[in-house]
Design goal:
The protein contains two helices and twelve strands. The N and C termini lie far apart (72 Å).
């Protein structure tokens, strides 16, 4: 059968076999897009900073995670998109940098600026556990709505 293959009694075209071969290559992981909508900002001043990680030990700041993804958007936009995101488990941390000084301002360890996390877990003292913020990103379009919280 020229140009066709038989699989479990079915004839499969060359293009289907090529796609299957491509998907089996190392690094050929299906990718998606993750859109983050940030809700309940107390002002449109400054920026919103986001970090996305797959690693518990790097949550919530992502600081030493070489594979973390970061984004900064104007607070007035309140939406960010991560593209070409491999399918997997992620946790997201967000803060509203109202004075745009590129850091989360605190007073006695309490954030003076808004913070939020994927899946909007409840938390009081300190950030939520990684397990409370983790979500699955699939190939295609994914959306997370993050509700900001202010303590001061």
């Amino acid at each position: 059968m020229t140009g066709k293959y038989v699989k479990k009694g079915r004839i499969v075209g060359k293009s289907a076999v090529a796609i299957l071969a491509f998907m089996s290559l190392p690094g050929a992981v299906p990718t998606g897009e993750l859109t983050i909508n940030v809700d309940q900002l107390r002002s449109s001043k400054g920026t919103v900073q986001l970090c996305l990680t797959t690693q518990k030990k790097h949550f919530p700041d992502c600081e030493k995670d070489p594979n973390a993804r970061f984004a900064t958007v104007k607070a007035s936009a309140a939406q960010a998109t991560f593209r070409n995101l491999p399918k997997g488990q992620y946790a997201l941390a967000v803060f509203h940098d109202e004075n745009a000084n590129d850091k989360l301002d605190t007073f006695a360890g309490i954030p003076k600026e808004g913070i939020g996390f994927s899946r909007n877990p409840k938390f009081t003292f300190g950030p939520p556990k990684f397990s409370k913020a983790i979500f699955s990103a699939e190939a295609g379009t994914n959306v997370q709505n993050v509700r900001m919280r202010y303590f001061l």
